[in-house]
Every structure is written in structure tokens, then in C-alpha cells.
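Journal club prep — side note

Before the paper discussion, L.F. wants everyone to see what a predicted structure for a comparable chain looks like in C-alpha cell form. Sequence:
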Amino acid sequence: MGLPLVLGTFTIIFLGLYYSYQKLRFKLPPGPRAWPVVGNLYDIKPVRFRCYAEWAQRYGPIMSVWFGSTLNVVVSNSELAKQVLKEKDQQLADRHRSRSAAKFSREGQDLIWADYGPHYVKVRKVCTLELFTPKRLESLRPIREDEVTAMVESIYIECTTPENKEKSLVVKKHIGAVAFNNITRLAFGKRFVNADGVMDEQGLEFKAIVANGLKLGASLAMAEHIPWLRWMFPLEEEAFAKHGAHRDRLTREIMDEHTLVRQKSSGAAKHHFVDALLTLQDKYDLSEDTIIGLLWDMITAGMDTTAITVEWGMAELIKNPRVQEKAQEELDRVIGFDRVMTELDFPNLPYLQCVAKETMRLHPPTPLMLPHRANSNVKIGGYDIPKGSNVHVNVWAIARDPAIWKDPLVFRPERFMEEDVDMKGHDFRLLPFGAGRRVCPGAQLGINLVTSMLGHLLHHFSWAPPNGLKPEEIDMTENPGLVTYMRNPLQAFPTPRLPAHLYKRVPVDV
């Protein structure tokens, strides 16, 4: 018993001295008192962005939060966000990689988890100049529209089946299927689900890989923040190796299928991302690890975020019947009742675009973004940010700041009719996709899909809360996590608005 007690006492004293040294050496932002060993870990409430927003009211728009012995700086207003993401962007463009993120990304061989440097610049260039160009996004538009109409058909079948009459449906089930099928088709050129909704063997394997990755990533939370405790929580090397091998084998199998098709068609490549990356491999000197990493970046970044945003948007539209009716009036006037909407209609649907933008303002899918890591000592807001610190931008708090938004908690799309606010990284009041060197390269793709899904859901159906529930009683609390699913999945009652023949999916093969 003596040795553990001595070691524990020594550790507490050492960390107490370390905190004091940091405060004396640097002018750190204010923040809640850090306890020895754990820092502020036990003070943080599960929904972190809300907790940080509350603390910002007490400590100010820039504050220090300690995860064990690691300093995390949180900024919560647009001026400081501009400093982090634009003025001091290069010094804050690295990534903090947990042990699991390091394993999944092969130590940053992808885009999301790469530190800022030659590799990041190269793969970012591939994304900007090759993968997410307007031409490629337009060429893949039929896939997006196909999957959205498949969603409409599945909702129509469920709500018009006699045994489901008067029953509400779980919205997430239908929009999640769109997000899954869309991203797998864009990235891999594969629809793992047939017309009857049955998933094939590769699809089941794919879903199992995604689920296992989430499980492995969540298994190390506490040890990640207290490095000297990691010997008590060893990395499951065998489990991570098995997961990585499983993921890589499936991805290579799909890549080989595409290579074979290209060879048979005399080298002609389709527009899917896997084909693009394989044909660009020599031009950009892309390793196989990087190609696999980029493909899985698209999966992880594009699948959850789209479904999350649309579910929140539908919750707000059901809570606010006035907005729902106004959006439907615009759709009826522009589209009418004898055809379905396409993305080509967007320019003539300004209010629908504002609905999508207001949804992303109130409910950004990654409310704290991914943390930026300082690669050198830097000053933000007059305070020191030591090299190696993590910096979080609370985009959720910024988008609800009463100093820059009128009635910030009210879902009012008209605010964007009155003032056009950019949301792709140029206006630091609205940052659902981040900004600067690490802005999401797929921002326009996400905007298009969210707008299309909301438009189709509103044009094809009127939406009401489940029987017995008032609109204002819909639960609008969030689940803890890096992304913000609704705590209780939205249930709603749809009523068809269009002729029956407009609910039929017309499959396309691109």
C-alpha cells in the first residue's frame, strides 16, 4: 500500500506544480479551477458545447479548460473565432490525434487528422481541385436526387399502409438511409441496399466496420486525457489491427472492382470518388493508405452530419408551423403539383435555402468543430496559447450570440432574406463547416443534400407532431458526443400532399 500512496502523492504534487508553472510562464485565459490529475474533467457536463457556453458567461469568450494535464482553450465569439481560423490560422492548423484517431488515420495519412504540412496541402489540393469541383458535384447530382426520391417513396409507403394509419414514424430511419446510400454511392459507387431495402453482404460488412470503429474510438476516453495513466488503459493493439485490416480489405476489394471495370471500358473512369482517386494516384503521388483514408474521411464526415442536420430541421419545422407553411407555399408556387423538385430549382427557392441555413445556424452538426492544435506559441485575444494546446471554437455558442443575432434562439429563416450571411467560412458568425485552412472541402455537397432533403420532405408531405404531443413539447435536447444527434429521435406524422405517382422512385445508375 505504501508505494502506490507515495506515487499518487508525488503525482498530485507534480501536477499541481505543473499547473502553477504554466500559469506563471504564460498569461493563460481564465477558466474554472483545475484539480490535480484530472483538471476539469469531472466538472464538464456531458453536452460539452452547452457547458462551455455557460462557463463563457462567467469566465469570458476565451477560457482555459484542462483535460488532465492538457490545456484546451475554448473561444465563444466571432471576433476570437476569426483570430483562430484566419489571422493565426497557420499556427493553429494542426490536429490533436487521440490514440484511436492516430490508428484509424495511420498517423494522419488522411485529410481530417493530418497535421498542417506538405501532406495536408497535397491531399487538400486533391479534394479542392479534383473531388469537390462544381463539375463533379453536378455529374453526381442524379445520385443525390435518386436517393432523396427513394426516401420519399419509403415514407409514403410507411404512412399509407393501412396498419400504420394514424401512426407516427421515426424520421431518422428514413433520412439516415438517404445519408448512408448517398455517401456510399458517391465515395464507392456502391448502393449496398436493393430496391426492397435489403442490404447485401458488403453493406452489412461496411456497417459492421463503421459500428466497430465507433466502439473502439469510445473505449479510451479517460486515458486519452491523462497520458501518465495510459499504462493502466493499454491500447487494444490486436483489436485495432484487426479493425484496420478488415476496413482495408473491404476497401481494396471495392477499389479492385472499379479498376477491373475501368480496364474493361478502356480506362474510362466514372465520377465516383474512388475512381477519381485511383486515376489521380500517380499524378499526386497518393499512397494506398491515403486513398483509403480519404474515402473513409468522406464516409465519417458525410454520413452522420447530413442526417443530423435534416432531423433537426424537421423538428424545427414541426415546432414552427408558420415556417413550414411558408416554405410549402414557395414550393407549390415554383414547383407546382405535377412534378418533383430537383437541385436545379434551388435558385428559385430562396426561402427554402434560408430554412436550410437557419437549421445549420441553430444546430451545427459539429458544434465545437474538431480541435485545432497549436504548432507554436501564439497569442489569441491577448492571452498566450502554448505550443501543443488544443483550441476549440464553439460555433454553437457563436451562432446563438445575442450580440450579433437578433432573437438568436428563434427559428426565423427570414433573417437570411434580410441579410445574406455566408456559411462556407467567410463570415465568422456562421461556421457550420469551419473556416480557414481546415474548412470542410465538401461544404457545398452538404448544403445541396440538406436543402434537397428538406425541400422534398416539405413538398411531398405536411408534417405534424405525434398524436397527443404539442409542437412546443418536442424534445430539443442533444445527445452528448462530437456530433449532435437529437437525444430522443424525432417522431412525426406525415400527410401526403401530391398526386400518388410523384412518390415513386426512379432509380439511376451513374
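L.F.'s comment for the group: The mean pLDDT is 89. Keep this in mind when we get to the figures.
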